[in-house]
Design brief:
By secondary structure, the protein is mainly alpha-helical. The chain has nine helices and two strands, in the order H-E-E-H-H-H-H-H-H-H-H. It has a domain of about 100 residues.
Length: about 160
């Protein structure tokens, strides 16, 4: 027979960073902005949250003055090119090539869009500026593909 046993914990310390508090390096390791990427089980995509969203005001105004989908301007004219993403995500040679690149040239050629349009698309898909600047080409391709899949689902409903 199993019996319950209660153990009182006096203090629980949860430290997300291994900081000693004594070294000068510790002050450099403390994050100034907390940008987290949340993943909800059951959903195929993640969500980013941060301290503030600098483009939130523009998105709200865009959705008020344009009742049609905000992403239509991006995905409407480039729909055929973005449909190729599904096949490219499965190809290992393309994935390995994109995983090592950070220049966005390969993605712009594969999708048929300019390098300047890639950050605009990702900002419309609620990705943070830090993700847009630090992600490799494979992560960018997966993000655009996931955003396009979500756009197609919302367009059907």
């Amino acid at each position: 027979q199993l019996t319950e046993k209660a153990i009182a914990l006096e203090e629980v310390i949860i430290a997300p960073f291994n900081l000693t508090g004594y070294l000068e390096v510790d002050s450099k390791l403390i994050p100034t902005k907390e940008n987290y990427r949340y993943s909800i089980s059951g959903l195929t995509q993640g969500y980013e949250a941060g301290e503030y969203s600098p483009n939130a005001f523009g998105k709200v105004l865009g959705s008020i003055f344009n009742p049609a989908d905000v992403l239509y301007g991006f995905f409407g004219k480039n729909g055929r090119e973005l449909k190729k993403l599904k096949e490219m995500r499965k190809d290992d040679t393309v994935r390995n090539l994109l995983e090592s690149k950070y220049d966005r040239e390969t993605i712009s050629v594969l999708l048929g869009i300019s390098k300047d349009e890639i950050p605009d698309i990702l900002q419309r898909c609620n990705y943070s500026d830090s993700f847009i600047q630090t992600a490799n080409d494979l992560q960018i391709m997966d993000a655009i593909s996931g955003c396009y899949e979500q756009y197609k689902v919302l367009k059907r409903n």
